[in-house]
Amino acid sequence: MKIKVKRICLFILLFFCFLLFISGLMTLFQRDLSLKDKVALVKVEGPIIKSQKIVDEINDYVKDKTIKAIVMRVNSPGGGVVAAQEIYEAVKNAASKKTIVVSMGAIAASGGYYISAPATRIIANPGTLTGSIGVIMEIPNLKGLMDKIGIKTEVIKSGRHKDLASVFRGIGDEERKILQGVMDDVHDQFIKAVSEGRRIPFEEVKKLSDGRVFSGRQALNLNLVDELGDLKHAINVASKLAGIKGEPEIITKKERYTIFDIFNKDLFEEIIKILPNSELKYIYLP
Question: Which one of 9, 12, 13, 65 is at 20 to 30 Å from 51 when CA atoms are compared?
Answer without folding.
Answer: 65
